[in-house]
Amino acid sequence: MTATRKELTRADLTPLSRAALGRAPATVSRVRGGSKKGVYRLTFEDGTTAVAYVWSPDEDLWDAGPGDPRDPFSHASGLTLFTAAADRLAAAGVRAPRLLHADSTHAHLPTDVALVEDLPGGTLEDLLEGDPAAAPEALERMAALLATLHTCTAPRFGKVGVVDNGGSSYGSSCEEIVVARAFGDLDELPARDPRAAAAHPQLADAIRTLAARIRPRDEPPALVHGELGGDHVRVTADGDLALIDIEGLMYFDVEWEHVFLRLRFGHHYDALRVEGLDEDRLRLYRLAMHLSLVAGPLRLLEVGDFHDPEFMRGIAEHNLGQVLTFLRHAS
């Protein structure tokens, strides 16, 4: 298990801040929530702020090490993935925190770091929960953002940093990658939960049955965030929306994004729903997503130091319930 994360201090981040912005922060505080990188808010004497992203193994609770970028679902962490995603979103006209400084030389900290603009207005999730009157306009903006994002396509699926540089991913199709990942997640579960162990044969059959219904498609893969819940959308002071945690940006079946959107936005998803999605892909991807959201949190609890383990256990328990419900309805 990874040791408890050591929090970086003002002294740790001052050399980076001076090199990037020409001044030292008055205070530094960790922003809670991230599990793959350290996120720190730097506040200056004049009240302005910036945010530091720190991609250190000490900050990565997954203890996963570098991922293979040719695997679309490999560990989405690192400065290279971040800058590739930031460039692609900027070209698409989708807002993300503006990159102020990137450093891969390890001159000021012994790891890759970036400074980005701070967007302190709160998340879309906060707004939907706390300001129902503002929700319709915010969801309309979110639907427009999704339309912009998903109309950007590429000739091949995979991480943006791979495809935009002319590379290719493992596997022959999005559905093949999802099926392989679903079986990988499924095979982890019997050792972690007796209910999953008992259901393993039926779940394996369900994955194979759903996969057999998928027909090849001609449409090119779309630009998707991959984990687009309301907590990964910041609301700016002028009501604009900006995507954060963008390292997982990839070209993939848009159904993968919509499965996650439906799961995370709940009853608000109706405002984001679109026509023309492949129902067979949705069914397969929904089961695969639930399996991932059982295996992933349980894996994190084994290797990491997540600040709210009960929250992670709750995610795993909820999604295991969804998986078992799926089986009951399919039988």
Shape summary = globular
* Distance separating the two termini: 39 Å
Gyration radius over CA? 20 Å
Summed over residues and divided by their number, the pLDDT gives a mean of 93
Which parts are unreliable, with pLDDT below 50 for 5 consecutive residues or more? none
Strand tally is 10
Biggest sheet: strand arrangement: 1-2-3-5-4
- By helix and strand content, what is the structural category? alpha+beta
Quick structural summary:
The protein is α+β, with helices and mostly antiparallel strands. It contains 10 helices and 10 strands. The strands form 3 sheets. It has a 5-stranded antiparallel beta sheet, with helices on both faces. Strands 6-10-7 form a 3-stranded antiparallel beta sheet. A two-stranded antiparallel ribbon has the order 8-9.
Question: What is the element layout, followed by pairings?
Answer:
Elements: H1 10-21, E1 27-30, E2 38-43, E3 49-55, H2 79-92, E4 99-103, E5 112-117, H3 124-130, H4 135-150, E6 158-159, H5 160-163, H6 174-188, H7 194-212, E7 222-224, E8 233-235, E9 241-243, E10 250-252, H8 254-265, H9 279-303, H10 309-330
Antiparallel strand pairs: 1-2, 2-3, 3-5, 4-5, 6-10, 7-10, 8-9
Helix pairs in contact: 6-7, 6-9, 7-10, 8-9, 9-10
Can you walk through the features of this model?
Helices cover 44% and strands 13% of the residues. With 331 residues, the chain is of the alpha+beta class. The chain has two domains: 10-117, Phosphorylase Kinase, domain 1; 124-330, Aminoglycoside phosphotransferase (APH), C-terminal lobe (Aminoglycoside 3'-phosphotransferase, Chain: A, domain 2, Alpha-Beta Complex). The strands form three sheets. A five-stranded antiparallel β-sheet has the order 1-2-3-5-4, with helices on both faces. Strands 6-10-7 form a three-stranded antiparallel β-sheet. Strands 8-9 form a two-stranded antiparallel ribbon. Strand 4 and strand 5 (112-117) form a beta hairpin. The mean pLDDT is 93.
